[in-house]
Design brief:
The protein is α/β, with parallel strands linked by helices. The chain has 27 helices and 17 strands. A hairpin with a 4-residue loop joins strand 5 and strand 6.
Length: 627
């Protein structure tokens, strides 16, 4: 029927409620929702795929802005396009290059992508005013929403989407989701237009979407981020002693879901920060005193105990902040190549640690040498300096809770720094830095901090997808930014990773290949050996299983692990007293460090030649890692 001839009063029963989005409406219902609009406009709305970004629409809108003589709109000025992420920036950039106006008149436009992973030079270029006759177009994530201001922006194009990070406790996974912006976000983006003259904002969503579908405000962080540190801080406050943590958090203005609270509590119990009675352990008290993720806090504490303080503080600062490597928009492949050249120990963390150390060595040769080093390996000086600043802050915190010499302040660390050193190793002393160069021990510190974030190789071949499986049978891939993303993992290979993130698919990030001894010595609670099996079965938390014919060595390792666990418990309770004065503790730590760094020690070498991860016999399955 000709729906244009129908009237509102004759078809009122077909009016859709405000909660129903435009994409669910018929053409006639769209006409009822948007009276006064032409048939062409209604027809276009009906054809639009609101759930997908239309890069062709974005490109043609920009073409219309720069080519049409507008009577009431500005004729010049920079254009800022808000896009959700890196992939959308790249797709829009490529679409513009294929659009007639921008393809045929490249010298009239400067198109600048803006993303947090880009180099400082790329980010600074957005502030440069374009020369007369040249139009600047900035393709940005919401980094340009509040973090920076581009003064010459006159036009804003808001696609209405953003990427938001949330955390799923049950799956131990972060999720970077593509979502609609809130009305607050939309208003903030609109405000980016016209800082120096009147501006115009195009929102690529309907007025009904704005009024009735978009959330009024973004989801509060406490409702989507990990609650582990929040729970620890509450447990440390005497005013809440004996109180139910769930009831306390439910009193917040924006309370988190009960399931998220339970997930955080369970994680803290697994880490050893809470006991079975929900009380803080000594480890939990110390972790609550360090303002970082609890796993990174554990890395800091154990690195101090095992005399590799300086190196583990660098690793912790990197994991707390971000990678020092940048990903230039037009030089991604070259950047990945140089990252692989400087890679070390089949580990993203070791690679970043090496980059940080060699940057300081380059600084010793002068500012120009440091600049050249960063340029060659695509490193951000700003990121490296922030990593340094975090390291120095951690020293003051460790001193305040008794894990290193008392009385060290941040200004003392900064004063100890030279142009070739951040001052951390110098001011903390040799005793807590004896094992800084023991790479196997450093990797073991990642195991103790990040467990159970582990996976193991199940087959001996590799295909282009390199799919992996971890605990809970999640199918994952190593993130493309990892130095291990194209590695071949043999049967029995073990990997520890920092986090699991879902974007276009599920990735594990900051991966490190680890030794079996590191896992046996540091993963989980304790080793169990089932001698009734033939061959005997070694188990860790019923998650990792080995079978071995070297029972005597296995029993010796179990005994050493027991001594180690007791030592760690004592040193956590009285850190500085035990750390520096216990002959037995020093002997156990020296023994573990030597075992980890020397696989040719008699007995141990034969032992690992005879142990096998369980469940690796089937070589016909797809390439994967599993736990």
């Amino acid at each position: 029927f000709n729906y244009e001839d129908k009237t509102l009063e004759h078809c009122s029963e077909q009016i859709a409620s405000d909660e129903i989005p435009d994409s669910k409406l018929s053409k006639y219902q769209l006409q009822l929702r948007y009276p006064g609009y032409s048939f062409s406009t209604i027809n276009t709305l009906d054809k639009m795929k609101f759930e997908k970004l239309d890069f062709n629409l974005i490109a043609h809108l920009l073409e219309w802005i720069v080519t049409t003589q507008h009577d009431e709109l500005p004729l010049d000025g920079a254009i800022l396009v808000f896009l959700p992420g890196y992939g959308e920036i790249e797709n829009t950039y490529n679409e513009l290059l294929e659009t007639k106006e921008f393809k045929e008149n490249k010298d009239k436009y400067i198109i600048i992508p803006l993303h947090s992973s880009f180099s400082s030079d790329e980010q600074r270029s957005v502030f440069h005013k374009a020369k007369p006759g040249i139009r600047k177009i900035v393709l940005s994530t919401n980094i340009a929403e509040t973090s920076i201001t581009i003064d010459d922006v006159v036009y804003v194009v808001d696609v209405g989407r953003m990427k938001e990070m949330s955390y799923n406790h049950s799956r131990r996974m972060k999720s970077l989701d593509l979502i609609w912006v809130s009305r607050t976000n939309a208003e903030q983006r609109k405000g980016r237009a016209g800082r120096v003259q009147e501006g115009v904002c195009f929102h690529l969503f309907t007025s009904h979407m704005y009024k009735h579908i978009l959330r009024p405000h973004p989801v509060p962080e406490i409702q989507r981020n990990s609650l582990e540190q929040v729970v620890l801080r509450i447990k440390m406050l005497s005013v809440f002693r004996g109180e139910d943590i769930e009831l306390i958090l439910q009193e917040l203005i924006d309370p988190p879901l009960v399931e998220r609270i339970h997930g955080a509590v369970q994680s803290l119990k697994e880490i050893g920060a809470l006991d079975s009675q929900m009380e803080l352990t000594a480890l939990g008290y110390h972790l609550g005193s360090i303002p970082v993720d609890v796993r990174i806090g554990k890395l800091i504490l154990y690195g101090t105990i095992f005399r590799c303080l300086d190196a583990t503080l660098t690793m912790a600062a990197i994991l707390s902040y971000k990678s020092p490597f940048v990903n230039p928009f037009k030089k991604r492949h070259e950047a990945k190549k140089m990252k692989l050249i400087i890679s070390e120990h089949s580990s993203d963390i070791h690679t970043m640690l090496r980059a940080y150390k060699e940057w300081w060595q380059a600084r010793d040769e002068g500012r120009a040498s440091a600049f050249s080093f960063c340029k060659k390996y695509f490193l951000s000086t700003k990121h490296l300096e922030m990593i340094c600043a975090l390291k120095q802050q951690y020293v003051e915190i460790l001193s305040s809770i008794g894990f290193i010499r008392k009385g060290i302040k941040l200004k003392d660390v900064q004063t100890s720094a030279t142009y070739s050193s951040d001052g951390v190793a110098l001011i903390t002393g040799k005793k807590v830095n004896l094992n800084n160069e023991n790479k196997e021990l450093l990797t073991a510190m990642l195991v103790v901090a990040l467990y159970p974030n582990m996976a193991h190789g199940e087959i001996a071949f590799f295909d282009i997808d390199n799919h992996l499986t971890i605990q809970q049978n999640d199918i994952v891939s190593i993130h493309p930014s990892s130095v291990n993303s194209e590695s071949v993992f043999e049967i029995g290979s073990l990997i520890v990773y920092h986090e699991k993130v879902r974007t276009s698919k599920v990735y594990i990030r900051e991966c490190s290949l680890v030794s079996q001894l590191s896992v046996l010595m540091f993963a989980g609670g304790c080793i169990e050996i089932d001698v009734s099996k033939d061959p005997p079965l070694i188990s860790i938390d019923d998650l990792i299983h080995y079978k071995t014919t070297q029972l005597e060595v296995a029993l010796s390792l179990k005994a050493l692990r027991s001594e180690l666990n007791q030592l760690l418990s004592d040193e956590i309770k009285e850190p500085y007293k035990n750390l520096m004065s216990s002959p037995k503790g020093n002997a156990v730590i020296a023994c573990v460090a030597q075992l980890l760094s020397d696989s040719t020690i008699p007995g141990v070498f034969n032992f690992f030649a005879c142990i096998t991860l369980m469940g690796t016999e089937d070589e016909e399955q797809q390439p994967q890692l599993s736990i």
